[in-house]
């Protein structure tokens, strides 16, 4: 899948919503993903599933590396975001949510000698960033640029998320990768229909 491929958004959002409904009703979320009509859903891709309720984050879980089909990755991450994001209580069926699926490009390692150089190379609004120093790592999707609009603020918040010190990163240990996303998003919040 390349950046010019059109994502099958309706199918991705339906997979996420159906997986959450099954997990809420039966505590498992097996779906028949083999008869999906888009070949793009069968490619190995990494994704994040973000849930919003009342316009605020309600859960977000994802994969940075492609290890399974896009359909399966979205199914898995949707259930994790709804029921297992440690920052939130598990989703309740009556809660209205809006689902957003972000499909990641492959990670591109950045050649930077220090944190200042990394900050200079950031492309606001475009880059998702993964940083790693030793055992500490964190990522922000490109959407985070909407609230952290400068490279300096973006980097500072990313280090805080990773549990890193607020000072300059140790350049000998620092690694950084960038990626982009293609996004599918529901227009409105609605509750999960559990079905019969």
Automatic annotation (TrEMBL):
<dbReference type="InterPro" id="IPR002733">
    <property type="entry name" value="AMMECR1_domain"/>
</dbReference>
<dbReference type="Pfam" id="PF01871">
    <property type="entry name" value="AMMECR1"/>
</dbReference>
<feature type="domain" description="AMMECR1">
    <location>
        <begin position="7"/>
        <end position="195"/>
    </location>
</feature>
<dbReference type="InterPro" id="IPR023473">
    <property type="entry name" value="AMMECR1"/>
</dbReference>
<dbReference type="InterPro" id="IPR027623">
    <property type="entry name" value="AmmeMemoSam_A"/>
</dbReference>
<dbReference type="InterPro" id="IPR027485">
    <property type="entry name" value="AMMECR1_N"/>
</dbReference>
<protein>
    <submittedName>
        <fullName>Uncharacterized protein, PH0010 family/AmmeMemoRadiSam system protein A</fullName>
    </submittedName>
</protein>
<dbReference type="InterPro" id="IPR036071">
    <property type="entry name" value="AMMECR1_dom_sf"/>
</dbReference>
